[in-house]
């Protein structure tokens, strides 16, 4: 035969690159099928954990294993290194080509042999120092025929046909069973959803409380009745509380503890006798005005304590010794009253004014009057500061009450009536007059006056045994209505005192018996009414604290 040209190395490598891409695709496909059960099993484990512990964003956690698995499969399939010789040997083995491609690649494998030695221009390996004798060459005609045979075998290979994408049934069946279990578990109700919803409601309530604390902080920063030190300290405490509430992940106990700490700190700063001190200061100012009016001959009477003190100092020069003595005794009595209420500076200033009035020293009296004005102003400022702290404390207490009731799951209680189911004519009460029974089914009751004593329901018409309504509370009809009418307060007639009878035409709701409703539904209404009464009426501080503690112990 004539001389056969040598097969170019790049032409065989191009075929091998094409085969390698198909092998990578098939390897990735097989790896995905064999490992598909892994992300499904991981998602199933996360779903089971989400039923044992409240995990927020459970769906995201369950979806997380899928992209991680897919990334690993693609990385192994696409980034795993494969040399042309490895591809050639793999193709020879799978297609039973009797190492045609790998042999041709070895003989015509570029500038180096398989053991790393360089080649000469005619393809022979360069002799190594250990073996200076050159390797014998193959028969050129035989080498050329082998190369042509390898190229012909490579041209006859169809990657899509010879390297098909097969289905591996057993791993896919396992993955399908795990997927069915996962779908079933996700469709069933999760008991942790209620806990997560409660935590979300608590976190929302904590955010609202934090916003309220920020509003209080702004109010405190603009409160003129507080000293700069008091404003700075209270504003700092409110800012810290707002930050703690915003960072709350939904833990009610933690939020209540944060609110209670500031609440207790403010309670220690508030004077327990604040109401008594306010009354004493108002009474003292009124007595000073009365003294000034008694000593002033002008038509215009002083309108406040400061004008009264100035009027007393001016009128001192025109007083007789007996008048000055009487004024001194009155001022001394006022100093004693101030001392009893704890106003030491005011008491000392009034005592100095009394001495100046007794001696008739007009200059000393004017100086003492100014000191009394300053002490009285400071006492009034301190009382106003105490009121500001009390209002802040009340709002923090209200926020704590709202936090205590946030996210609560409703109880399975329904309204019941102890007089329901009674036959007509049966009287569950022990009244002496008609109409003192358990109620009427009529829509309107006639105007009448009744007296009697309520008793325990008797007979088969009783609605339930004792203890059945332990989660309900009686609510008078006037508390459930929206009208501002008179409220009837039950009592016992002793035959003493005066009686007033007023007739009125009003439709009253008919009811078989006093209605009972779940305790949680009316607790807030009673608490709001009590809080408004405490803010609106003059009640001593000790009694206010007693009422707050009472409602704290009654929390649902």
Task: Indicate the topology.
Elements (H helix, E strand, L loop, with lengths): L8 H27 L1 H16 L5 H6 L1 H15 L4 H12 L4 H8 L32 H16 L3 H4 L6 H19 L4 H30 L6 H19 L5 H18 L4 H22 L9 H11 L5 H20 L3 H16 L2 H44 L66 E3 L2 H4 L35 E3 H18 L4 H13 L3
Antiparallel strand pairs: 1-2
What would you say this structure looks like, in words?
The chain is mainly α and 556 residues long. The protein folds into four domains: 9-127 and 135-187, no CATH class; 196-269; 274-402, no CATH class; 518-556. It is 61% helix and 1% strand. The protein has a two-stranded antiparallel ribbon. Helix 2 packs parallel to helix 9 (169-187) and helix 13 (274-295) packs parallel to helix 14 (305-315). The longest helix is centred in the C-terminal third of the chain and has 44 residues, at 362-405. The relative contact order is 0.07.
Q: What's the pLDDT, averaged over the residues?
A: 75
Shape verdict: rod-shaped
Distance separating the two termini:
107 Å
Q: Helix and strand succession? A: HHHHHHHHHHHHHHHHHEHEHH
Helix content: 55-70%
As a percent range, the share of strand residues is: under 5%
In DSSP terms, counting alpha (H) and pi (I) runs of 4 or more, how many helices?
Answer: 20
